[in-house]
Design a protein that fits this description.
- The protein folds into 3 domains: 195 residues, FAD/NAD(P)-binding domain (3-Layer(bba) Sandwich), CATH 3.50.50.60; 107 residues, no CATH class; 132 residues, 2-Layer Sandwich (Guanine Nucleotide Dissociation Inhibitor, domain 2), CATH 3.30.519.
- The chain is 35% helix and 18% strand.
- The protein is built from 17 helices and 18 strands.
- The mean pLDDT is 93.
């Protein structure tokens, strides 16, 4: 069965695919989005896993999502409402004390002074520096990386503006930016602070989704990346979506449909059709063939090139580069339906923001050590949210949902497999949390455990990597996903990438989808 050709077929209705669809449809193009699951949003979806309880099954925070996209696509009209907690993070400690950071800087200074007066005095200067450094990073998020071999004058001018912004920040700040990006987050924070709890809260963002510890080079860059757009007391940028993060995907889909895009769920793409080295459409698992001027993949690069396009259709050098992309998924998640709010041992528990179990950067490094040898962390790092504190619509009256993201859970286990170890890991995560909130086990009504293998099988994330490839310094900018393929175009004519495996990378930003749409429209204009 063959259908009429589209201007663009987008494989995958994750948030980046939907962003691309909305921009192309807004530009008057005939767009079709194909999603193999029945739910939109990919790894940023919301589902009623248990009756009456709605969970953000993957990402639970939209703090990095670009405001430009919200404004340009008028997503508020499509019923997106962001929720910001006055609490940035609550970090209970093993001695039953706790550190809380707020959006209010005066509160933070007073809170930090309880642990270290010296750190409290330095904190405002630290925030000012971080703000200046992230401004520079922020300015390149919606830029297309420069070409490896050739650049047009327009491309050079755009990046020259970003460089000028760095220069205008001041000579000291410019040198500091270049100095700190490759640093370990441990070294960077040791230059500023003495208190271990504070350094752990600030530095934990440096390893989010990464198979490396805080003593690895480049983790300061990752910390700054997660601080983009943050007015969050020094903690990583954080905003929740009312009704669950799936509402963001629903709004993007609504915006795309308003401009004429079609979106089909339960439509799994089995193959990208090629004709004389050019992408001409797709073949669905059902056997249906659909034609299009261009094909845009929101899947990760390895899945796109090897599973859908086919390695034999690519040159050996390019195949080798794709094969060498580091994925190394290392996060697991536990979703809990609770009968009530947990009681923490700390007398001052603030539960509306993030809750971090990570007493020190040394603790985090030891957690990583286990993963290096194919074991899940014996003392894991937990990033917890209870979204029902601010949004009661996600659970029955008086009940709550809790999501726990855990590191490190390596994709490849040395002595077992994830089908055998899934529930054991869930038990271990709950036992770790119970050391800080002893009544948690009594509150659990239902439990879901998601392992790296589940990310791969259910969400099509290669090796369970939530970022479509690790975000090391050697896998960024024009080297993301690989050198020579960093501008959303691929070696296959009319095949593009729009997912987190492209610049600027992972997280719920929408930036890859935005940038890919711009480049596709630019190519169409050139060919017109």
């Amino acid at each position: 069965m063959k259908s009429m050709p589209y201007d663009a077929i987008i494989i995958g209705a994750g948030h980046n695919g939907l962003v691309t669809a909305a921009y192309l449809a807004k530009a008057g193009r005939r767009v079709l989005v194909l999603e193999r699951r029945e739910t939109l949003g990919g790894a940023a979806a919301t589902g009623e896993i248990f009756p009456g309880f709605k969970f953000n099954t993957g990402a639970h925070d939209a703090g990095l999502f670009r405001q430009e996209i919200i404004d340009e696509l008028d997503l508020k009209k499509h019923r997106v409402e962001m929720i910001e907690s006055p609490v940035a993070v609550f970090a209970p400690q093993p001695d039953n004390t706790s550190l809380t950071l707020w959006r209010d800087q005066e509160k933070n200074i007073a809170e930090i002074a309880k642990f270290s007066r010296a750190d409290a005095e330095k904190f405002p200067a630290f925030i000012r520096l971080v703000s200046k450094l992230t401004e520079v990073l922020d300015s390149i998020m919606l830029l297309t990386p420069p070409s490896v071999t050739q650049n047009t004058l327009d491309e050079l001018l755009v990046w020259a503006k970003a460089g000028l912004k760095l220069k205008r920040a001041g000579k000291h700040e410019m040198m500091e930016f270049l100095r700190v990006l490759p640093m370990t987050v441990t070294e960077f924070l040791n230059e500023w602070f003495e208190n271990e709890a504070l350094k752990a809260v600030l530095g934990s963002a440096g390893v989010t989704g990464s198979m490396q510890g805080p003593q690895a080079s480049g983790t300061t860059f990752m910390m700054l990346y997660h601080y983009l757009g943050a007015e969050n007391g020094g903690f990583k940028s954080s905003r929740f979506v009312k009704g669950g993060i799936g509402r963001l995907a629903a709004a993007l889909a609504s915006a795309a449909r308003q401009h004429g895009a079609e979106i089909r769920t339960g439509a799994e793409v089995a193959q990208i059709k090629l004709n004389e080295g050019k992408a001409t459409g797709v073949v669905l698992k059902s056997g249906e063939e659909i034609s299009a001027r261009v094909v845009i993949s929101n899947a990760d690069p390895r899945r796109t090139f090897f599973d859908l396009a086919g390695a034999p259709n690519l040159g050996p050098t390019f195949v080798r580069r794709v094969r060498n992309i580091r994925f190394r998924g290392n996060t697991a998640k536990v979703n809990l339906a609770l009968s009530d709010l947990p009681r923490f041992r700390s007398p001052e528990a603030h539960l509306s923001g993030h809750i971090i179990i990570c007493p020190s950067l040394e603790y985090l490094e030891r957690a990583y050590d286990d993963a290096k040898y194919g074991r899940h962390s014996q003392k894991p790092y937990l990033d917890i949210v209870i979204p029902t504190v601010l949004d009661s619509s996600l659970a029955p009256a008086g009940r709550h949902v809790m999501s726990i993201t855990m590191q490190y859970a390596p994709y490849k286990l040395r002595e077992s497999n994830w089908d055998e170890s899934r529930e054991k890991l869930g038990d271990h995560i709950i036992n770790t949390l119970a050391e800080y909130a002893p009544n948690i086990k009594d509150l659990i009504l239902h439990r879901q455990v998601i392992t790296p293998l589940d990310w791969e099988r259910d969400y099509a994330l290669t090796e369970g990597c939530i970022f479509h490839g690790q975000m090391g310094l050697d896998q960024l900018l024009f080297m993301r996903p690989v050198a020579g393929c960093g501008q959303y175009r691929t070696p296959i004519e009319s095949l593009y990438l729009c997912g987190a495996g492209t610049h600027p990378g992972g997280g719920v930003t929408g930036a890859p989808g935005h940038n890919a749409a711009r480049e596709i429209l630019k190519d169409w204009k050139r060919k017109a």
